[in-house]
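**Folding the chain**
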Amino acid sequence: MRPAVELLILSMVLTSLTGCITTRSLELPSRDLIQRGQLMIHSDFELPERHRLVEELTHLRLDISRILDVRPSDESIDVYLFKDADCYDRYMAEHHPLLPTRRAFFIKSDTRLRVYAYWGEKVAEDLRHEVTHAYLHSAVPNLPLWLDEGLAEYFETGRGTHGVHPAHIDLLAQQMAQGHWQPDLTHLENMTAIGEMNQLAYAESWLWVHFLLEGPPTRTDSIAADLLSAQLRSLRDRGESEKIAHRLEQEIPNLRVSVIKHLETLNDLKTSALDKRANIDVSSH
C-alpha cells in the first residue's frame, strides 16, 4: 500500500474514532438536541431524552424557584455537551482563549445564556453548577459574585442533599483550625471579579448561602432567610440591592459565632455519617 493511501486511511479512522481531528471539531455540538423547559441541550453524541441527569437539570429550575422564592424565567438556555474533554478543550481554546482551563463554563452575553461542558466523571456536578448560574441569571439580574457562586455551589450537590458540600466543610474546618480563616461576608461582598476568588472564597460563599438557607430553625434562621429573600427580590425588581453583611450583623447578635457553629454542626454530621458508612462497610466483609 502506498504511504499516501496509508495516511489517508489512518486519518479517516482517527476522525471516525474521535470526531475531533479535523476543523469540524471546533464547531458546537449539534448531533442531538433535547428541549426541556428553558434548556436546549445540544450534544455531539446520542443522549437519551429521559436520561436521569436531564431530568435532574429540568427539576433544578423548580427547586431554585421554590427554595429561593424566585419566579423562574422562560428565557432559553443553550447547553452544549461535548463527548469528551479533548473536543471540549479544543473548542474552548479556539473560541474562548482568554478563559482559564476548567471543566465547564457558563457564559452570558446580551442576548444568549450558554453552558459548555463535556461528558466526563464530574459532568453531573459541573452541569448542576453551571445550569444553576444560567437559571439564576435568567431570573435575577446583577447577582453579587459571592451569592452567584455560593448558590451554584449549594445546588451543585444534587437533590436531597440540602446543599451539604463535604469538600467545602473539610477545607473551611481545616483552615479555621490552623488559624488561617474566619468567616467575613464583607470581604466576599467586596469581590467583583471571578479572578479574585480562590477555592477558600468559593467554600466560604457556599457556607454563607448554606447558613442563610439551612440554618437551625430559630429566629436567627428566619431573619437570615428573610434578608436573602429581600435581596433577591430587590435584584429582580430593581436590578440592584444593598449589601447584606451589615444588615446581618445588625439583626443577628454574634453573627460570626453563629456561622462558625453552623460549620461545626455540619462537620460533626459529616463525620458521623462517614463513621456509620465505615461501620457498614466493615460489617459487610
